[in-house]
Amino acid sequence: MTEQTIPQAPPVADDADAPARVSRRIGSIAESATLAVDAKAKALKAAGRPVIGFGAGEPDFPTPGYVVEAAVAACAQPANHRYTPAAGLPELRAAVAAKTARDSGLSVTPEQVLITNGGKQAVYQAFATLVDPGDEVILPAPYWTTYPEAIRLAGGVPVEVFAGEDQDYLVTVEQLEAARTPRTKALLFCSPSNPTGSVYPVEAVRAIGRWAVEHGVWVITDEIYEHLVYDGVRAASIAVEVPELADTCVVLNGVAKTYAMTGWRVGWLIGPKDVVKAATNLQSHLSSNVANVSQRAALAAVSGDLAAVDEMKVAFDRRRRTMVRMLNEIDGVVCPTPQGAFYVYPSVKGVLGRTIRGRTPQTSAELATLILEEAEVAVVPGEAFGPSGYVRLSYALGDEDLAEGVGRIQRLLAEAR
Ligand code: PMP
Predict the structure, then answer these.
(1) Which CATH architecture has domain 24-57+308-413?
(2) Contact 289/246 with Cβ under 8 angstroms?
(3) What is the pLDDT of residues 44-62, one digit of tens each?
(4) Domain 82-303 has CATH 3.40.640.10
(5) Is any atom of ligand 1 closer than 6 Å to the C-beta of 118?
């Protein structure tokens, strides 16, 4: 009889030297809180509960017809059943360069554009390409929930700089400077912001860009909400306002929000040629390329006009006003008026510590659970985006549902004692 191999016991989790079952790098990632809230609300809805969800980060409009038609036509072409170059269809890279010059005023060549699987993958690849283990990335908070995870996956250290409702959730150069160390590699900049909807005034954009240039800090600027601005404000691109950033700036964007194309998964990363080349090498091993048909649809979208987003904006603007007004009517809730994206970000600190139906929420996470269970309304707690004390509500849902949902929150919180 041959000697048998003795089965090994699985590695014990608390033995720091043993290989982990799920790698420590991936095991430490938290589930996306926004997707989790959305999933919970959808599950309750599927079970027949009249849940109203304010968790979603996507427009409630269909993709424009001409985009869908381009995709249908592309499906019939065998050429589109094949791989594309890793960096994307040459026509699409050129069209994104043209669209960027048209919309933000940034002039780039097609070689500076990498087509990614949604803006989310552009975020991931930007950090993976720029950040070495131990590098610090300054992250204005409240921040979109994906940024810190993508920074940590690259081995980087997110350094949070918090701006509360008293400063319209906008960080200052002084705050950024206080957070800067010799290990600071980059600043993440997102305006209009998810989750707060805040838009940096042009002067502030310039000041932050100049600070970054002065100290050799890279800027990763997420411009995915560039067209969703209200009250006549302009979303200034930091790369345009501070041209000296050209060699140390990466711009992230995509079709998801502007063209109601979240499900098509097309985004892009724009940057200096060497960075784009390196990020393309990564993508060539990660996902090869974005689905060919989706790239054709995106080509139609960015080559067309902005009529669809202009139409969505009218509805979003109306809902934004209703929501801000109704939330500010609640005792203990303070909701600044956001000027961009499709989120409001009220402070709920005045409600915490008070008793509602026998429960006394101490954190915004506990309050969000209470609101979901008692009012059947889904909101995302501030803990997903930074400190407790806030909730995020998306207004990308129908006017009637919106009024009904906020009305339910109003009635529930009116019971707070
Ligand atoms: N950046 C921000 C700030 C976002 O809110 C989102 C979507 N929630 C994305 C990037 C990514 O969008 P997508 O991957 O759907 O293109």
Answers:
(1) Alpha-Beta Complex (3.90)
(2) no
(3) 889 999 999 998 888 889 9
(4) yes
(5) yes
